[in-house]
Amino acid sequence: MIIMTLDDTFDMESKIEKEFLNRVRDWMESENAKRGKYFHVSSFVYQCARKVWYEQTIEKEAVPKIDEDGLIRTWIGTKLHETPITDYHEHPLIAKISESDFGGRLDEIYEIDGKKVLIDKKFVGYIPNTMNDHHYEQIMYYAALLRETEGIVVDAVGISYFKPSVSYRSEKRYKTYVRSVSEEDLDEYIKKIHDMVGEVEKHLADNTLPDKTVSWYCKYCFFKQSCDADSKEFVSKEVEDLR
Ligand code: SF4
Question: Does the beta carbon of 217 sit less than 6 angstroms from any atom of ligand 1?
């Protein structure tokens, strides 16, 4: 048996963590490569064309080097999505919108009492008291795309929230919220998708910065510093550091 010093074990700990993160990063990059080149629904849920513009321009080089916290969070979320619940599990949806492809993968479609319910699963730190607005936006984009691409009209949309905690404490770990959907709602969301994609395309073609859409999300936005500078030439230090 080799007797190890404290320094040896510290060194071992950091090598194990590094190896783990490297493997997760490799896996994540291969998943991202499979995602394909299209405007993804999740980019548009905060309804900010400027954020999508940044993703299409300066983020391209920075994305594979995402921070460790973000890496682990995305890894957990992706792994927890793996269990199929319905026949539509992880069903891809891509529509031609204006000059671009726009889409993503819906999570599940349940059939309950003859009604179709489109559901997105969210793994969260706490269970909200109601469906979050940006989650509603996202699921409505999918509902609109589903009708557009496959002619399937759902009767309702919903979010299933899960709190993936291993604590033994007795606590609420899941809750589903459902809202009914009309054809008019779907018309409204298809128009919204066309407007947003058209706006981003125009700014990409003109090489101009889209207007801000300021919301509660801005303080979490990766591009906040670049955005505050209000100049398309400015790249924040945090983005530059990741290049
Ligand atoms: S900080 Fe806000 S306004 Fe600026 S790009 Fe991000 S989401 Fe849009």
Answer: yes
